[in-house]
Amino acid sequence: MRLALKIAYDGRAYHGYARQPNVKTIEGEIIDALLEIKAIESVEEAKLHVASRTDKGVSAWGNVIAFNTSMKKDSIINALCHLFKNIWIIGYASVEKNFHPRYAKQRKYRYYLVNNGLDIKKVREVAELFIGEHDFSNFAKIENKNPIRKIDDIVIHDGKIIKVDFTAKTFLWHQVRRIVSAIEKAGEGTPIDEIKDALAGRKKTNFGIAPPENLVLMDVVYSKNLNFHYLKYAKDILKMKKMDMEKKSMMLDDMEKFLFEK
Residue 202 sits in which domain range? Predict the structure, then answer.
């Protein structure tokens, strides 16, 4: 049987998804757990693959892994749900033997951008420039890959924290974070023509890269015939996390009042 798992994780606790020596990674913890419960005998034999190898600090709500196993899926899920601290199994699906999670229909990312007086009109204007097919050489780490990519949509949600939603089939390394940095600079007053020139390849410009901790891989979308069964326990975990964050926020509010509002 080949099993696909939809996973969420707090990327701030890891040195990225991909397994590396001597550091804690998401892939490393997943492999260790699957070996421990004897769901797989080796990574190679199980053909364990992932949809997106997120960078250090980047979180996910809906990344997807897939592997071959002879173990019952209920036993795997029940065991994994209690082995991780910062990784959560959100859902599962039985898939075809040749299923590779990398070959998805769409990927959806969200970036949380602090609004320190940004010009939201310019933010939206610059975001629209990146929609469609472009050469993203000035807005990604290429490393011998084809710099041509198509972004299906970018949506800006205004507020104290601006939410920037990206949708595309594939993304280049650092592409989202470099685009966000350019969007932020436009909102701070960088001339939009400079960003247009960089996107058109008329000028080589580095607009910087936004921090990884504010980026989330929201979802990886496949064809309609792949339906994930979502787990109730994941919703319960989320409620507990929200309560913990609300408690910490209340403590900070009380601290501020105690120290500065006497």
Answer: 106-217
